[in-house]
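Quarterly update, task 2.4: PMT-bound model.
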Amino acid sequence: MTSRVSVHLRSRRILLGITAGIAAYKVAGLARLLVSAGAEVQVVMTPSAGEFIGAMTLQAITGRPVREAIFDAQHEAAMGHIELARWAELVLVAPASADFLARLCAGMADTLLHTLCLATDAPIAVAPAMNVRMWANPASRANMKVLGERGVMIWGPASGEQACGEQGPGRMLEPEALLEKVRQVFASGRFAGRRVVLTAGPTREPVDAVRFVGNRSSGKMGYAIGEALLREGADVTLVSGPVALPVPAGARVVSVETALEMHRATLAEVADADLFVACAAVADYRPVSTASQKIKKDADTLTLELVRNPDILRDVAAMPERPFCVGFAAETERLEAYAEAKRRAKGVDMIAANQVGRQQGFEADENALLVLWEGGRTRLPQQAKTRLAEQLISLIAERMDAQTTTQDT
Ligand code: PMT
């Protein structure tokens, strides 16, 4: 099993505020690091920050137009300032000048950045950068105390030689150090720093231009697992068959239709994953050939020749550097015996078995699971799939931790 320590920032929405200060030139590097770590970065500059760094540079790095004006008809029509405040999962102001911090402390709303800081529910972090005497000034000390008490995270400043030639605290933390702090903000939850690939929903195996062989999976179970993992800090890639569910916020979704597409997409995604959960109801067989036009109903009978699809779960579990693998078993009879046989045959670490039928398992809002692993089993009683998903991922975390401990000793 691969082990990772760094926290992924994929799809994390970071509002990067830049205020006027010589350290602003370093923020291009910070923006690049955040984008490389997978974050979506929206830069908002105070009016005079533009004296120190060009908006074009930041726009090129982040792929988003830089926001500056508080009254901006063009942007207010698209993502208005309140929407932008809601969009952010973290507001990071770097460099944060003495003036910016004083205004933030006073609750002023005379720039777009200050307005956003007042309007957002997201955590706010500031990376102060100013002259050593300005930092030591009682006014700055008092402002920092108030901001700290309000929950604003104060990152830095570092000590050292300053642009003005003086020595002492006042330098903005380096971009790498700020990146690490950002990672720490998102490093909460039992799956923080873990990358998870999850299959969900049905597959559709085309018969002709309009018909397919499919199944009743709605994706509810898989999506609930994805959401529970996201809440616990995981970096989730959801390889999903066709479903009518909203994308879980923060997940990366790869949409597929057929088993072959799901197989290809999963193997492309899973290489550096820590956990693979196969919740999709993958068609075991597909038509040998697909008619390009709609088949005419001339004959009284129609025989479909089917060929076996590759087994995604088995192939992932057979990888030399494989993630922790959790499969599902959908059974209509002999639940435990068949599920245990599947666990062994597919070589997976854990299997979650559910009794399925017309109104059971598939499509329903509730489910029950019998979870099996080497030397252990537990029953998760009938309840909402959302609750069940939370209990299942808690079991998975325990087993993953137990496996890591065994490997380390
Ligand atoms: O989507 P819902 O409506 O919420 O319903 C949830 C569910 C019933 C679909 C779900 O709980 C479930 O049981 N998913 C697995 C369904 C299934 O295909 O089970 P299986 O016993 O046929 O397959 C065993 C395991 O191998 C599964 O993890 C499956 O994803 C995997 N598999 C199967 C075939 C294949 N070609 N590739 C696979 O990866």
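Highlight for this quarter: Residues 199, 217-222, 259, 278-282, 284, 309, 311-313, 327-330, 342, 354, 356, 361-363 surround PMT (CB under 6 Å).
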